[in-house]
Amino acid sequence: MVDAALAPVRAAQRFDEAALANWMADTVPGFAGPLDVQQFSGGQSNPTYRLGTPGRNYVLRRKPPGVLLKGAHAVDREYRVISALHGAGFPVPATFGLCMDDSIIGTAFYVMELVEGRNFWDTAFPEVPDADRPAYFDAMNDTIARLHNLDPAAIGLDDYGRPGNYFERQIGRWSGQYRDDADAGRLPAMDALIEWLPANIPPGEEASIVHGDFRCDNMLFHPTEPRVIAVLDWELSTLGHPLADFGYHLMVYRMPPGYSTGLAGLDLRACNIPSEGDYIAAYCRRTGRDGIDGLNFYVAFSLFRLAAIIHGIKGRLIRGTASSPQAAQAVEQMERIAALALAQTRN
Predict the structure, then answer these.
(1) Would you state the torsion angle of the CA atoms of residues 39, 44, 45, 49, taken in this order, to the nearest 10 degrees?
(2) Taking the CA of residue 338 as centre, how many other CA atoms within 13 Å lie in the half-sphere pointing to its CB?
(3) How confident is the model at residue 183 (pLDDT cuts 50, 70, 90)?
(4) What is the DSSP annotation of 23-88?
(5) What is the Cα–Cα distance from 50 to 111, expressed in whole angstroms?
(6) Least enclosed by CB within 10 Å: which of 4, 101, 112, 294?
(7) In the chain, helix, strand, coil percent, each to 5?
(8) Cis peptide before 34 (omega within 30 of 0)
(9) b/e for 268-297, b at 16 or more Cβ within 10 A?
């Protein structure tokens, strides 16, 4: 992954590299060592490693060590959805093997292709020429629309999530994880959202494959072209409401630059970035919609979920199991993101 920062494996997340090499020799076609292991600096949840060999390079994703919340870090689900999507021609890495045996490296893991591409951390795409920026936004828009237009049953994912009541279940899940993590504390804005969201779910049921964390930094772009060649980090994927996924992707338009990689407050015209309205219209055109009613709910829900995810990171940071050195920086954003989520409910 070009442009992704690499570093030596962090002490708390080291493992038996010889045992991994033996497993790969038995499992991965064409594997031949020696094996060089480095760790990617990004990713707050499942530790991710670059596996270098003389012939080719791989990526390993694993559950983090330590005490984990129930249902979190499901690398087997990641492996399943990536494998199915790759078979359908959607831009994801090829997969090579899943190991649920904790005795190999200490936790479950899977190995996939290392895709060589450009990784952008700032949604404003400051690294690309102004004239090219709309094409990068259009590539993201096209990719999320392609995902939502896929038929889950046609690619063997019709049982990848429970049908119906998606928002009720998701709000319940994230509310429960928030409440159960006593180490991370409570926030008045989160408590207010837990009350407001279930009472304001828009009518209508839809179901598609949803990524759950569809942001520019979870995509790899072609080295020289404005084209998405791999979507990464499928831990939160499921069958769910596509507008939850799109609302999460869209929320950067409502987040100031100091909030992760937000666009609010930027002169979008001067930056040659599509407006929120134009971006929504492009998605609707690609997915056959006349528009999106209840947009503020979808954005509020998405910001709430992001705050709940960061709340979990805070808990892991306190317990010493956070997988990224940027964990403390992410936790600093939590209160402001929760407040921004609550502000959407008043618009």
Answers:
(1) -10
(2) 23
(3) confident
(4) HHHHHSTT-----EEEEES--SSS-EEEEE-SS-EEEEEEPPSS---TT---HHHHHHHHHHHHHT
(5) 10
(6) 101
(7) 45, 10, 45
(8) yes
(9) beeeebbebeebbbbbeebbebeebebbbb
- Give, in order, the Cα–Cα distances in Å from 265 to each of 124, 232, 304, 347: 12, 28, 21, 17
Query: What's the predicted TM-score (pTM) here?
Result: 0.89
Backbone φ and ψ for 230, nearest 5 degrees, come out as -160, 130
Percentage of the chain modeled with pLDDT above 70: 93
Which segment, 58-67, 244-253, 306-315, is predicted with the most confidence on average?
A: 244-253
**Chain position carrying tokens 């292991």:** 37
**Tens-place pLDDT, residues 87-113:** 999 999 999 999 999 999 999 999 999
Proportion of the chain above pLDDT 90, given as a percent: 74
Distance in angstroms (rounded) separating the CA atoms of residues 63 and 38: 16
Q: What's the chain's Rg over C-alpha atoms?
A: 20
- 3-state DSSP call for residue 1? coil
Average pLDDT for the chain: 91
